[in-house]
Amino acid sequence: MSRFFRGGDDSSSESSSDEELYGSEEEEEEEKDKLQQDDSDDDDMDQESDEESESDSDDGAAKKGTSRFLLDVESSESEESDVEGTTKVKSAKDKRFDELEATISLIQNGQKINDWGSISNELDKLNRQVVKLQDGGKAPKAYIKCVAELEDFMNETLAKQKVTPKKMNATNARGLNAVKQRIKKGNKDYQDQIDAFRKDSDAFMESDEEEAPPPPKATKVRFEATSFPGEDDGGDFTEVTGGRGPKLTPESIPKHLRAILESRGKKNTDRLEQIKIMERLLAVAVTPYQKIRVLMTLVSARFDLGTGGASSMPLEQWKAAERELASLLLLLEKEKDHIVIEGAEEWDDDDKAPVLENGQKYIKIPGSIVSYIERLDDELTRSLQSIDPHTSEYIERLTDEGALYNIIVQGLLYYEMLRKDASLEVPQESLNRMIQRRLDHVYFKPSQVVKILEENSWKEIPDSVDSTITPRSQSSDAAQLINVLCNYLFENSDGIIRARAMLCQIYFLALHDEYYRARDMMLTSHLQENIANFDITSQILYNRTLVQVGLCAFRKGLVYDAQNTLQEICGSGRQKELLAQGVMIQRFHQVTPEQERLEKQRQLPFHMHINLELLECVYLTCSMLLEIPLLAQTGSSPDVKKRVISKTYRRMLEYHERQIFTGPPENTRDHVMQASKALAAGEWKKATNFIHSIKIWDLMPSTEEIKTMLAKQIQEEGLRTYLFTYAPFYDTLAIETLSTMFELDSRKVSAVVSKMISHEELAAALDQVTETVIFRKGVELSRLQSLALTLSDKASSLIETNERTLEQRTQGSTNAFNRKDRQGGQRGGGQRGGRGGARAGGNTQRQAGGTQFTGGALGAAVRG
Predict the structure, then answer these.
(1) What number of CA atoms fall less than 13 Å from residue 377's CA on the CB side?
(2) Model confidence over 171-206: pLDDT tens digits?
(3) Shortest CA distance to 603 belongs to which of 318, 266, 310, 272?
(4) What are the Cα distances from residue 128, in Å, to 174, 358, 636?
(5) Of 127, 310, 589, 710, which sits most exposed with the smallest number of CB within 10 A?
């Protein structure tokens, strides 16, 4: 089929191609004769072919074969130009040139009306467009002309502002500053062309010759020398690099760093490749400025590997970032004339490094050390959240906290050094954030662990360096360290940081059994009044501190204080959620994926958890010691029946009592419920055995002391329960009998009875001569009186319920009654104030709250 597409313009090319296709000239001649015979049958086609051969004067020969059926380029173009409405197809390069010219015209229009806001936007767009139109590193001449004229126009505007300052609006001022920065930054790459344009603009624009791009150089692959037997093995080796690898030199470091920074956040960016390039840049860096810049960019690039809130950094990348951050702090410690500070101006000149000028003490590098440290800390926390805490991997990962704490201490020392120079104006907030991070790692740890952390951190710091806030000599005392850090934040911060510092100190005091100091600080801080206005992280810390204070009160034997403190957290049934130790699955509440992700981010690592089983055991035990005597007291006094200390405990107790068969206790709740049942029956020894058999007490320090304290509490509450239960059956009762029955000292029995009498819990008197308790019968209510009071309470509640129901049902028809009332009043011929009688069609409107309902004799008795 290829014979139908052969051309007849060039005989030499035709013959050579025919030889390749058909292999011989004889076959070619046969094909020509055959085609000529076919062509002779059609006269019209011959005529057209003759006309084409005659009109083609340039070629000088008529087209042969099937070529006459194909149109030339010229004829096709002429036909396309003749057809109206046909769209001319442009190449991508022509379209880009058109866009470039349109942008340049917009910039020129902006110059005419002095609109620097639009000029700034269009110049940014122009710089992006010219990147695609560069030819061998040369920019289009139209672009060079535009930026050169724009720079001159900008300089004229700035000069006019200095001579006759006019107040520009905010948009123009921002646009002018942006154009100034972009011109200064962008014109460096095309300075040679701009200089040529300014030297002779006409010659520059008329010259059509564009420098051809240099031919691609052949990639030279240099192999390492291979030593053969008998040759000297001590030759020098040359590193083999890829053909596309950039040439890295100390002079090219700023340009490479700028290119890497500009590509951050863009799609299809190979972050690992950038990290490898920066590692090589760090190896060739010579000056301290170059090393600091490369280290900061490298740490930032490693942090970019964290893809989002759901995942954490890879372990090897985190450790590499930790090492590089430690190297950065060590370098800043050695080179004291180089400082990294927030708000410093960016050095834009890539050709030369900054140097100290006259009157300057420091080379300021923009950056934030505290932000790097906070991000490193957050990544460690996120990593611990994603690891199973019951594996050895969690323990190994937790060992990295020591290295992180060393960096936190070094960062704190660095900011202390910067704060000594008042000319630097280092913000106080940065130092406060560093101290808060240090507090977050020590407030929940025992003193022994804090002491080890401090000793290891100071070993990494030179002996010549010391802290003014936390001197090296105070590192052995954990309590003193916490006190100093918190007091510093009390004086130099406010808001959330100050509140968190106070909560950390309270937590530490409660953890080390200083209950009264922790309680006083909690009450004087008034945090319970405005904690709802703080962020969720601070609310979680408040809940943790509250729980720790309650556990401290329990260890001190203060049962009432412990139960009262733990009631807010444990009584809600949402301990996991409030303490950020797990996500509660609620039955009628659907959690969105975004809320679930945020909840998981707020979860604390496992080593910071408070044992929830121990917390529940303490809460239920305290509730038992308070509720059982109260239940015994309300058996004969219905007025106190409304008082409930713990609704959670009451529900568990009622559920346990409803069970027909109860086996031996299996968990903590079963032990406490069985002990409650035994204590209510007066079997205090049995109750003590149930409580002591709970294995969770072994997790608390001084387990034997706690069990002894619980035994004494059960004895005392058993005595109170016995007196409440059996007081109606005694006239007198000897203290010695009670002492023998509950194995308490007679003085302790007398003290308990006296306290009950003084609080009017027991209607009795204590005879100290005979050491007996004399009960008074007249004060006790009879069975009938108790039932009458109960009936009156229920009747009053029933009346109120009926009145509310009636009011809700009649509320919608009140307007209709009022309309009838007004109509009836008008028809009756007199005004009745909207309260017409029955004959007038009105209806007396009832007041809210049932004030018009007397309730009969029973209601009068209740109100009386």
Answers:
(1) 21
(2) 888 888 888 888 877 787 788 888 888 887 777 777
(3) 310
(4) 20, 39, 89
(5) 589
Q: How far apart are CA 152 and CA 511, in angstroms?
A: 70
Question: What's the CA gap between 274 and 302, in Å, rounded?
Answer: 10
**Residue closest to 150 by CA, chosen among 108, 88, 118:** 108
Q: Which amino acid is at 391?
A: T
Question: Mean pLDDT of residues grouped by 10 in the chain (864 residues)?
Answer: 44 41 45 48 45 43 47 45 52 80 88 86 84 75 87 85 73 84 79 82 68 43 37 40 61 84 80 89 89 92 73 87 93 90 78 75 89 94 91 93 94 91 85 94 93 91 88 86 93 90 95 94 90 91 95 93 92 88 69 79 91 94 92 68 81 88 88 92 91 92 91 93 88 91 91 90 87 77 80 91 86 49 45 38 36 33 34
Q: Which of these, 809, 812, 830, 811, lies nearest to 821 by C-alpha position?
A: 830
d(CA 281, CA 298): 10
Angle ∠(645,646,648) on CA atoms, nearest 5 = 165
Predicted confidence at residue 304, as pLDDT, reads 85
Residue 55, beta-bridge partner list: none
As a whole number of angstroms, the distance between CA 377 and CA 379 comes to: 5
Cβ neighbours for 661, distance < 8 A, ≥ 6 positions apart: none
Phi, psi of 430 (to 5 degrees): -65, -45
Rg, C-alpha atoms of the chain: 46
In this prediction the pTM is: 0.65
The 3-state DSSP class for residue 565 equals: helix
3-class DSSP state of 659: coil
| Residue 765: strand, helix, or coil | strand
Tokens of 647: 């609704």
